[in-house]
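Form 7-S
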Amino acid sequence: MVKTFFLISFLALSSFCSAQPQTISAEIAQDTRTVFFCLVSSAENSSLDFNAQYAYIEDIGDGRGYTAGVIGFTSGTGDMIEVVKRYVALKPKNNPLKKYIPALEKVNGSPSHDGLGDAFVKAWKTASKDAEMIAAQDSVLNAMYYNPAMYYAQKDGLSTLGAFIYYDALVVHGPGEDEDSFGGIRKAALAKSNPPSAKGDETEWLNTFLAVRTIVMKKEAAHSDLSRISTQQKFIAEKNFSLTLPLSWNMYGDKFILTRKK
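Output:
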């Protein structure tokens, strides 16, 4: 199935999920944050309508417990509880998720649903109707993933494409310095190649980074489909370092097109 979208502003997307080819009209064609979010949403949710994903929640069987929200925060890796705590800070009263903080603390680091279950799933979906919950997800997303990606992209002298590649790696592998986290992947790549900030070639650097990331991806059955990597390699091969629209790519069997409003 081909899903065609016309990019609009970051905050203006409404629901476009359907079994038919999809179209989004666009005003702000080079909002890079929107492009990044659309690309990640195609991988996380098979949709470019990332604004519809704040209420998303399910256990996808990857050993991380519940996966939920705009970029797939998980109950087993610690970022979901940060979202809930931020949400409670923004809305301390009449908060449907507040009572689940002890359970989220207990299951952190495991795939367990103990103390959560269907009631928690329902509460997450209810909470995601609140502006404070949207703000909480965005706050954690920025602090843990988006801002670090922009920082390291600038540090390494990367293009918009390079910044996206870092962002996607942070979303999937998380921050940190162990070999399977973003910091470890970047460290291993630095041992093999130089980024542009160290007089290296960006194409070579990004391909090296992705080669290291591929090794990490293959360690988990949940990441055996390397569509995320092949999409990024496609953009490198096209020399589309500014992620200029239109963009077309395949993700897990679906074809996506992101283009400018005519």
